Amino acid sequence: MPRRSRRADPETIRRRLINLLTNFEAELQSRDLRRKVLALVPAFHALRDLGSSLITVGGADAGRKRILFYFQKYPKVVIRGDELMVVAGISDWPRRLRELRVEFGWAILNGKTIKEMAREGEFSINGIDAMSLGPDHYILLG
Asked: What's the burial of 44, exposed, middle or buried (CB within 10 Å: 0-12/13-18/19+)?
């Protein structure tokens, strides 16, 4: 089972991440690729922990809830998948996004759908160029 992100004080996590990256300098001198990769794993986990710790409201203790909170904070704003990955703090954020759309009925559209709607004259939000959006762009309509 994949490791879940651990939420904590963002400043504490930031300091831990800086320490891990600073100490990685010594690993770069190694010829052993696996040693380098294994030394980066804690930094990867710390970065995910930091992202999931940015949303501190009560009840946002799961990736899906953090994604929904982020969308609700920025409705009708183009959100990139990378942003969702950061706030979710999990690698399976696309599945959580699908759950919000399919199982919970949230009107979250991706760039491909928005382009199709724009071609049919069914999408118009001021300031958003629908034709420039890609499949990794999302908007909460509500």
From this structure: middle
Per-residue confidence in pLDDT tens, the chain, 142 aa: 566 677 788 999 999 999 999 999 999 999 999 999 999 999 999 999 999 999 887 767 799 999 999 999 999 999 999 999 999 998 899 999 999 999 999 999 999 999 999 999 999 898 999 999 999 999 999 7
CA distance 133 to 111: 5
Residue with tokens 């690993």: 27
Token pair in block for residue 51: 């992202």
Encode burial over 118-128: b for 16+ CB neighbours within 10 A, e otherwise. Answer: beeeebeeeeb
The Cα diameter of the chain in Å comes to: 57
pTM of the model: 0.86
